[in-house]
Amino acid sequence: MKKNNKKGFTLVELLVVIAILAILATVTVVGYLGFTQRAKESNATSELTQVRNVINAYTLEGPYVVKAEEKNTQYTITLDDNTISITSSKIENDGGEASPVEDANVSPIIALIPDLESLSGTFAINASGDLEYTYEEGIVAVWDISENTVVIK
To answer: Within a domain: residue 28?
Structure first.
């Protein structure tokens, strides 16, 4: 008499297990990517909200002046109901003619404001006069000044 002593799994059983593991891995990766995207958007919104609160506080009684001593320049941040604007003038002119700051130069100025030195993104003033904050991987948060809200674009 022949003894049938099979030990192990059949090919079909192994393929079923591999398919189940592949499905679980796919669901996990998709969920993780969505979670990290929402976390980055939340961080960008939080940082721009911090900027909004600080600028609102500093401009409460009128334009706020930031001095960049190494460039011998002062920047005036003005906030009204609908727009934010930043102008620059030489310190020695003291009240001389101010010129608007180009969008590309806004980020270093924001970094001069106390409590905002550690932000990692870049800032620009868009055509509507709102402040845009570009966070890593192209996430853009916008401070809609007329509504006083921060949203992800």
So the answer is: yes
